[in-house]
Write a structure and sequence with these properties.
The chain has 757 residues and is α/β, with parallel strands linked by helices. The structure holds glutamine and zinc ion.
């Protein structure tokens, strides 16, 4: 028996087949039956991959046409009132994407991943009833296909913990209405087979839970696991340790407990409790969050330590979480440097690792077939090669990083801002934008043609310059005060820098589902990072040469670059971040020496890098702030440093934002009036702030009056000398037809207000 387990598998398809089917269905180019056919094919293919890799516990219901939390909401009939006249797929996709009559449900990040789930909306008026159709059907499909699967469902505590109440109340007040539906669901599933395994995902157990939530764990699982003797319940957690919940769960009648031993090393502290109970341990030891080959020897050592406590018969070897979070298969990486490719492992390859590890662990190396022996040998060699490769280790970078600890720019804020105001001479309520202007079809085509070699370098440069010319001319015409070049050369704010940094790799097909049909292809950091030459100076200085106004330089900050990449696992993230910061620091220096007076270092992903556990927050904040400051440490006192963050909930982190010490921060507050700005005033924040005055996520053009009102409401909170006026994020996803009138109205609004000063 192989005794291994996979938490869940990707569903988008190795060639993003699901994405393509969904998008053509939404565009009315095919019917729903076509989507269903593709989905069925994918489910079968994904089961095949797992079966042929020798996986024992394979999932059903890990597939979804959009999102598993949305599926769970539908299963419970937690359907918001505004969708009540819809049915079946129309209802499902309207909840996810909105319809003519009803706005979509909110979407938010799944823990600390880049996956987004649909936030269920609950109301005390809801009438919850079971709709187990999808779950039952998927189990039966697998069965007909010759496979006995476990059934994956999202657990009730996580479901309630991630939902929101439409009336602002506490979701857990609805616990007693929701739990009976779960009981019914388990009863229904129990009818499907003689014995059946249900995986209940409770990732919320890895957060710091209050006592009220902790107190629900025992009654919930006493109930659910006590329903039927032929149902085996596995409660699975991931992304961090779940020590508090573990202690409770071992005293419930569940069959097994899934723990992440990679991202929650503290789970090892629970081993003795588990050993003393009758629970099976699903040991997450193959990383479902990263793309590196498993170091099998190391994993076997970890498992040996686990086996010092827990009896081997009670261990299953597993992925650390669903393989949804890694790309599908290395098979399609045809262009990648062979040495680097040899260090990687995507979803399909991880299945083989899980199988190989479990075989060695339970049956010994002697039991391996010749092919498996070769695979083990190759694994060993790949890990050795990675430890010593010249591609990874750059002595120069290591030396430079070692000599730097804390490095900060000259002068304190009060001193700097005085010099800057004198030199830069901008007025109160200075107008600017966040950086990008609309990405036109031509500009996308220009970049694509250049990348594919269909456009020569000179023509490419000319095309980009033409865009910049027009972009600068428009900003002058409309009367904006601090200009930008518009970022036409960038496809993505991380990829653009990654491509120019040494130590960064790119995949051809490394797609990971981000939400619904959308995927991202994160670059990966495999080695020591350095910046061989300036990355943005040419474009920024060209743009500056086209205007007598101030041209703002545009960079992405180290923490954001890190958080939106797959990061090497042979070095602490904080060290990698420091290396990136040094590269950015050189760029800041080159920009200012080339005459750029204001430089914005975007930290759009600063907040999402926060650890799930409070005890780890301080450490993250320490190095994240350290590295932002390091990245701008080369700035002269008179060089004004801006930063931008794509959110507005700063209440918990305001002290940290302050500690970053940027001269100006632009933030996203447009949708919440001045509410979220209040914290800045409350803590006596000194630096300047640019709260977004209109929402760029909508095509709507804001009127002058509306922006005037918005600015007055900001002025109730902060004095005009401290405020900048800008849209709430970059304009790249908008069209010029929307952007031009919106920005003109914004400038006009400021002009009207200034006449009253
Ligand atoms: N400078 C980037 C832009 O304007 C910032 C994008 C972002 O914050 N996500 O597009
Ligand atoms: Zn933004």
């Amino acid at each position: 028996m192989s005794k291994n387990y996979v938490t869940g598998f990707a569903r988008i398809g190795e060639k993003r087949e699901l994405k393509k089917a969904l998008e053509s269905y939404w565009a009315k180019e095919c019917d729903f039956q076509t989507v269903k056919n593709v989905a069925n094919e994918l489910k079968q293919r994904h089961w095949d991959y797992q079966k042929s890799a020798g996986i024992e516990y394979i999932s059903s219901n890990d597939f979804s046409l959009y999102d598993n939390i949305l599926d769970m909401a539908v299963t419970l009939n937690a359907v918001p009132q505004r969708f009540k006249n819809l049915q079946e797929e129309e209802l499902y996709f309207a909840m996810a994407r909105g319809s003519k009559e009803a706005v979509a449900m909110e979407m938010t990040k799944w823990f600390n991943t880049n996956y987004h789930y649909i936030v269920p909306e609950l109301s005390p008026q809801d009438n919850y009833v079971l709709n187990a159709k999808k779950i039952i059907q998927e189990y039966k499909e697998a069965k007909e296909y010759g496979l006995t699967c476990k059934v994956n469902i999202i657990g009730p505590i996580t479901f309630l913990g991630l939902s929101k109440r439409v009336d602002g109340g506490d979701c857990f007040e609805l616990y007693s209405k929701i739990l009976p539906i779960y009981e019914e669901l388990i009863q229904e599933i129990a009818k499907l087979d003689d014995t059946i395994t249900i995986q209940i995902d409770e990732p919320i157990f890895v957060k710091d839970l209050d006592t009220k939530i902790l107190s629900l764990i025992k009654p919930t699982y006493d109930k659910l696991a006590g329903i039927s003797s032929h149902v085996k319940i596995a409660v699975v957690t991931y992304f961090e340790h779940s020590k508090e919940a573990t202690k409770i769960l071992i005293n419930t009648p569940i069959w097994a407990l899934g723990l992440d031993f990679l991202h929650g090393v503290e789970n090892s502290d629970s081993l003795q409790y588990i050993a003393d109970s009758d629970k099976t341990l699903i040991a997450g030891v193959v990383d479902g969050r990263n793309i590196w080959k498993n170091d099998i020897e190391k994993t076997l050592n970890l498992l040996d330590t686990i086996a010092l406590h827990v009896n081997k018969d009670k261990i299953l070897i597993s992925s650390s979480c669903s393989l949804l979070h890694v790309p599908f298969s290395l098979k399609y990486e045809e262009k990648m440097n062979a040495e680097i490719k040899n260090w990687l492992s995507y979803g399909v390859e991880k299945l083989d690792e899980i199988n190989l590890i479990s075989k060695i662990f339970f049956q010994g190396k002697e039991s391996l077939t010749q092919n498996e022996k070769n695979a083990l040998q190759e694994n060993k060699e790949a890990n050795i090669s990675r430890k010593s490769s010249k591609l990874i280790h750059d002595a120069e970078v290591q030396k430079r990083v070692k000599n730097i600890n804390h490095r900060e720019r000259e002068g304190n804020y009060e001193e700097r801002i005085k010099i800057q105001k004198q030199k830069l001479k901008y007025l109160p309520l200075a107008t600017t934008t966040i950086g990008s202007f609309p990405q036109t079809p031509q500009i996308r085509e220009t970049r694509r043609a250049f990348k594919n070699g269909d456009l020569d370098k000179n023509s490419y440069i000319n095309e980009i310059k033409k865009y910049i010319d027009e972009c600068v001319a428009f900003q002058e015409e409309c009367g904006l005060e601090i200009l930008v070049h518009g970022e036409p050369e960038r496809n993505d704010m991380v990829e653009y820098f990654g491509e120019q940094l040494q130590g960064y790799g790119f995949s051809q097909n490394g797609w990971v589902q981000s939400y619904g049909s959308r995927c991202v292809k994160p670059p990966f950091i495999y080695g020591d990072i350095s910046r061989p030459k300036p990355m943005t100076v040419e474009w920024s200085t060209y743009a500056q040469s086209k205007t007598s106004k101030i041209m703002k330089g545009m960079l992405t900050g180290p923490v954001t670059i890190l958080n939106w990449s797959f990061v090497r696992d042979d070095m602490p993230r904080s060290e990698v971040s420091k290396q990136i910061a040094l590269g950015i620091c050189d760029e800041v220096d080159d920009l200012q020496n080339a005459g750029i007076k204001i430089i914005q270092v975007d930290e759009a992903a600063f907040k999402e890098g926060y650890p799930l556990r409070k005890t780890k927050v301080q450490e993250y904040e320490d190095w994240a702030v350290r590295d932002f400051k390091l990245a701008v440490s080369s700035a002269y006192k008179e060089t004004q440093i801006h930063t931008h963050m794509c959110y507005s909930e700063f209440n918990d982190i305001i002290a940290t934002i302050e500690a970053m010490d940027a001269d100006v921060i632009s933030i996203e507050t447009a949708r919440s009036g001045n509410e979220l700005l209040k914290i800045f005033a409350k803590v006596g924040y000194k630096q300047e702030v640019g709260p977004g005055v209109y929402d760029i996520h909508s095509p709507r053009i804001p009127s002058v009056e509306e922006i005037v009102t918005q600015i007055y409401s900001l002025l109730e909170v902060l004095p005009k000398e401290q405020l900048w006026i800008n849209p709430d994020c970059g304009l790249k996803t908008r069209k010029y037809e929307e952007v031009k009138p919106s920005l003109k109205n914004m400038v006009e609004a400021v002009a009207q207000i200034r006449t009253n000063f």
